[in-house]
Amino acid sequence: MSDSYFSQPGALHRRTFLRVAGASAATASLVLAGCSTDTPTPTPVNPNLLTLGSADTGLLNYLYLLEQLKTAFYQKVVDAPPADLRTGEKAIFDDLRDHELVHRETLRYILGTDAFDAALSKPLAFDFSSLTLTTRAGVLAGAQQLEDLGVAAYTGALRLLKTITTVSLLAKVVSVEARHAALVRDLRTPGSFAGDDVVISTGALQSVSLAKTPVQVVAEAKAFFLPIVVSTDSLPTA
Amino acid sequence: MNLFSLLDQLSAVDASSDAAPRRHLLRQLGQAGAKAAAAALPLALALPAQAAPTDASLDSTLLLLKLEELLAAFYTQALAAGAVLSNAAQAAVRPDFERILAQQQNHARFLRTSLTTGGLTPPATPTFDFSGRKNNAGNPELFPNVMTDYNAFLQLAQQLEDASADIYLGQMATFTGDRLLLDVVLRMQSVEARHASHIRTLRRNAQSGVVVKNWPSAADTPFNSAVLVPNPAGGSAAPVSIYSFETNEKQVVTGANVVPFASLLTGSIAVQAGAYASAFDEPLPTAQATALLNLFS
To answer: Domain residues for A147?
Structure first.
């Protein structure tokens, strides 16, 4: 199978391509309709656009992408640990890397040929230039950002998943992700394990975990994907 | 009612969507009221079998309420105990436990409200006894010094919080008929997991030489007083640790389709021994959850 969800030349999933191309054509028509005097400028298909599919497959690809991101982050940390890590912390990062790898491969297995990168010859590279990976503080800041985002992403995605057996399996993953988040938060700022920025602090849902939609999560994580632009347009919202 | 639009409300305005949970409470009202009414019917007027209401999520709500009330009582007692949290040595961590207590109380309040809004009178809060004596001095003390020794307190706290995360996982399946309620239960669960992780960090910091990771692990130092629950084998089989369920390495995708970790995670992506199991938390079944709660009341 030579196509994929990834829109680089030669690797574009046919259905995805048609969807994207169709949208561009529609946009172009609208522009045409509204601007009779200007020369229309059709929206080009972004060759770096990554679409994730629809329904459960799209949501699982979204979670798979985030697990790839976390695995890549921890792999970088364990390959070149900051010199100022404290006793025992390298072992913690080894464990975190392993857990994310197990989660990533679990999602890849569930997706099978539906995985967005099933036909890619090499895995997606991520851009961590927004983080400082050479210091303990920088690594912990990055870990907290990714773990808190991961928990919010899972809790926001599970309610959209239709397949209940998958929800049951992934609930067991979120539980461990929440443990990770509390761990790295406490390493960075003792006592911050369940702060008001990650646990809702008012209203009827007071003290439940903050959930974020795929749109919110991708907006927060977009710098890590560059030059790839991740589209959440095809994902379910309800 | 339009469930999808409610879910949408929840996701759109996460922090202040009071309307959505109330709607689920109304749904609970229907189920709970039907159950109460069925119970009140004379036998002669009993409903046909297939008309009996599904009350699984109601039972789960009651179980989770008792769990949250147990945890709230545990921290309330510990915060008042001079030798545990109400002293200078633990001043730095006292706010952590005040936060955990408040979050448990809010979870209990949510569950209790879901029952009262459903027309049910929630059961009275039990008098919890964390010595394991069940409020009877003649019974053996299963958990000595929990309210007089900080390390003994932390050991029980860790077991209760780990169990809490797992008890929630064990009840998930009964909420699948109401995705909105399932969503809230999932999100309470991940807060429990954060608590469990924090207690494990505190234990590691409080006692040198104690091996305790932030998730259940075979490497963890055994407890002085372990919480034991009935053996799933039943009969006269010896009770088991709550952590016996955490050694599972079989993750089911669907039916007989199990994630083949040993063939997936090889070569440059091989992981350390134990990682297949520790990457997942595991449900504590209802029978074991109920037995655990009964140890303290």
So the answer is: 54-223
In this complex, the residue of B172, B260, B271 whose CB is nearest that of residue A98 is: B271
d(CA A232, CA A237): 10
What distance in Å separates the CA atoms of residue A105 and residue A98, rounded to the nearest whole number?
A: 11
Q: Does A178 touch chain B (CB under 8 A)?
A: yes
A34 inside domain: no
Is A158 within 8 Å of A174 (Cβ atoms)?
A: yes
- Could you say which residues from 102 to 161 on chain B have a Cβ atom under 8 Å away from some Cβ of chain A? 102-103, 106-107, 110
pLDDT digits (tens, 9 = 90+) for B124-141: 999 999 999 999 999 999
Give pLDDT tens digits for B232-276. 999 999 999 999 999 999 999 999 999 999 999 999 999 999 999
Residue A153, both tokens: 């992403």
CA distance B156 to A223: 43
- Tell me the C-alpha to C-alpha distance, in Å, between residue A1 and each of A7, A108, B278: 15, 17, 35
3-state SS class at A234:
coil
CATH code of the domain covering residue A125: 1.20.1260.10
Domain count, chain A: 1
| Residue at A176 is within a domain | yes
CB count in 10 Å sphere of residue A119: 16
Segment (H or E) for B115: helix B94-117
Residue A189 counted as domain residue: yes
Domain boundaries of chain B, sorted by first residue: 56-239+284-294, 248-275
Q: Does A165 touch chain B (CB under 8 A)?
A: yes
pTM equals: 0.85
Query: Can you tell me the distance from the alpha carbon of B74 to that of B152, in angstroms, rounded to the nearest whole number?
Result: 13
Both structure tokens of B147: 């309210």
Asked, for residue A38, whether it belongs to a domain, the answer is no
CA–CA min distance B214, chain A (Å): 6
The CATH number that domain B56-239+284-294 falls under is: 1.20.1260.10
Question: Which residue shows structure tokens 């949501």?
Answer: A59
For B183, the closest of A92, A159, A210 (CB atoms) is A159
**What's the mean pLDDT when you consider all of chain B?**
85
Q: Decide if B261 and A205 are in contact by the 8 Å CB cutoff.
A: no
Quote ipTM for the complex: 0.85
